Amino acid sequence: MKTNDVILKSVTRVAAVIILTFSIYLFMNGHHHPGGGFIGGLSMSSAIVLLYLSFGVDKVRENIRVDFKKLAAIGVLIAIGTGMAGVIFGKPFLTQSFGYYNLPIFGKTELASALIFDTGVALAVIGTAVNIILSISEDR
Question: From CA 110, how far away is CA 81, in angstroms rounded?
Answer without folding.
Answer: 21
